[in-house]
Every structure is written in structure tokens, then in C-alpha cells.
Amino acid sequence: MSFLLARDALNGKEGKAFATIDGRNVELFGLKKFEANAEFEDAKFTVVGSRTTQHKPKEMNISGSFTIYYGTPDFIAIAHQYQATGKLPELTLQVTNEDASTSVGTQTVAYYGVVLSKIPLSLLDESADFLEEEISFTASSFEPLSNFNAPVNLGG
């Protein structure tokens, strides 16, 4: 019988993320959460003689967000650079899941042509023990640099 063993469930805290900003690597210290998604848009396709609408994928959008503890100067510097020059730096994100306690190994994905959609400039919150900022982004492409293995009990 094949099923996922608890030891192969990935711990969400095991991994790391980097931003490459104009060729300079910056580890995303204080990272709380990272999520990137591929969203497919389709075109409707109808034909005479059918009462159903078919769908054909026509494009894919890559977007996501990450939450970090407030206080990293690199992102406000990006917004300020754009304000002053009208130019955004070249930005790549790289995220690695690496839980050594599992049999699935490591997965690393790179996101290229990253454009930050929202950068908090200032935060104050009297009820917050720790200030967090959520930064959203889009990317023009992605590439899996390494993939997970199939979990041992699932016959990979």
C-alpha cells in the first residue's frame, strides 16, 4: 500500500530564499513566508453543433508574494531608485526547500525578470509585537534548478 509517510511531509521552516539585485546576492533574512503561483489564462472555443464551451490555454502569469520582518533596507532602496531614476534594478528570486529529515531531497526554483508590485515604505502598528512587510511580485519566467524526488513509500 502506497501513501505519504509523515517523515516525508516537508517542514515549512526548512529552506532559504535569495534575491539577486543588480548582480548582488541578498539572503532574505527574516523570511516568514514565500509563495509563487503560475496562473493560466484560457481562450473560449465554441463550435457549431456543440452546446459546450471548450477552453484552450493561451498564456501563463507568474506572481507571488513574500512576507519578511520589517527592517530590510534593500526593498525601500528599490522603490527610491525607481522614484529618482525611473529604472528598476534587475531582480531574480531563488527559493530552496530543503528538509533533510525527508526522503524527497531538495527543490530549488529561480524566478527571473521579477518586478516588485508592492513595497511597504513605512510601518507602525501599536498592536504588533513584530512588524512584518508583505511584498508582492510578478515574474517573466521561472526555472526549476533542482526537483524533489518521489517520497520513498510512493515508489519513486
Walk me through the topology.
Layout: E1 15-21, E2 24-27, E3 31-45, E4 54-69, H1 73-85, E5 91-98, E6 106-112, E7 115-118, E8 132-139, E9 141-146
How many helices in DSSP terms? 1
Radius of gyration computed on alpha carbons: 20 Å
Largest sheet: 5 strands, antiparallel
CATH secondary-structure class: Mainly Beta
Give the overall shape: globular
Which strand order does the major sheet show? 2-1-5-6-9
The percent of residues in helical segments reads: under 10%
Which fold does the CATH topology refer to? Pnp Oxidase, Chain A
Give the integer mean of the pLDDT values.
Answer: 92
CATH superfamily: Phage tail tube protein
What is the ordering of alpha helices and beta strands?
Answer: EEEEHEEEEE
First-residue to last-residue Cα separation: 14 Å
The portion of residues forming beta strands comes to over 45%
How would you describe what is shown here?
A hairpin with an 8-residue loop joins strand 3 and strand 4. This protein has a single domain, classed as Phage tail tube protein (Pnp Oxidase, Chain A). It is built from one helix and nine strands; from the N terminus they run ββββαβββββ. The chain is 8% helix and 48% strand. The model has no long low-confidence stretch (mean pLDDT 92). The radius of gyration is 20 Å and the shape is globular. With 156 residues, the chain is mainly beta. Strands 2-1-5-6-9 form a five-stranded antiparallel beta sheet, with no helix packed on it.
